[in-house]
Amino acid sequence: MGELIVLRHGETEWSRGGRHTGRTDVPLTPRGEDQARSLPSLLEGRRVVRTLSSPAERARRTAELAGLRVDDVDPDLWEWDYGGYEGITSAEIREERPGWFLWDDGVIAGDAGHPGESVRQVGERADAVLERARPLLADGNVALVAHGHVLRVLTARWLGLEPALGRLFALDTGTLSTLGAEHGRPVITSWNVPSR
After folding, report:
1. Which residues are bridge partners to 146 per DSSP?
2. What is the pLDDT of residues 124-140, one digit of tens each?
3. pLDDT-derived band of residue 195, with 50, 70 and 90 as boundaries?
4. Which residues have C-beta within 8 Å of that of residue 63, sequence separation ≥ 6?
5. Quick one: which of 51, 117, 186, 189 has the fewest CB in 10 Å?
6. Which residues contact 2 (CB under 8 A, 6 or more apart)?
7. Could you list the active site residues?
């Protein structure tokens, strides 16, 4: 039985600045490309039988630079749709909504391209990804290349937790994490391992 290899894309200008980057397709910075080029050292000795990626260029480029061939672009791996908070930092949101916390308070509706979604909806997408990925683990490791918040929610769902408990799993850019099993029960086998 394989593991899920969870890769968060490398740094972007918006991730470096703390801007909520859902559906806006921001490219990797030079540092983000370097992070992605360093990921093969973390993948050494891990046979990947399938790679699923978010449609975002920053995720697909990370997979490419990490030496992975994307087998499927999965729209359910898109980042949380931040709605009217797209491109805005948490500090800016708190100026108008003191004490705001994404995991508790959610987002406001945005334009047609950014309608926003709830943590429950992100959890439903994560469940759909896991449903497709689990059978593939019989053949070996499956890589998922995506974004910070959606991967945190996916991890919570892997563990059988409510989607909002993804708040417990900080995840940096350009990192590798693995989800596996111990005695037949889902566990985190490594977390937030930085690229070298």
Report:
1. 8
2. 999 999 999 999 999 99
3. confident
4. 7, 51, 53, 69, 70, 143, 145
5. 189
6. 49, 136, 137, 138, 139, 140, 141, 142
7. 9, 79
pLDDT tens track for 78-91: 999 999 999 999 99
- Quote the DSSP letter at residue 64: H
**Residue 178, strand partner residues:** 5, 190
Which sign, positive or negative, has the C-alpha torsion 93, 24, 131, 145? negative
Q: Which pair of tokens denotes residue 60? A: 């697909």
Give the predicted TM-score (pTM) of the model. 0.97
- Pairing, β 141-146 against β 4-8: parallel
The CB-side HSE value for 93 (13 A sphere, CA atoms) comes to 20
Q: Which residues pair with 28 in a beta bridge?
A: 12
Neighbours of 94 (CB within 10 A): 12
**In terms of DSSP bridges, do strands 72-73 and 175-182 run parallel, antiparallel, or are they unpaired?**
unpaired
CA pair distance 15, 34, nearest whole angstrom: 15
- Residue where the block lists tokens 């003191």: 98
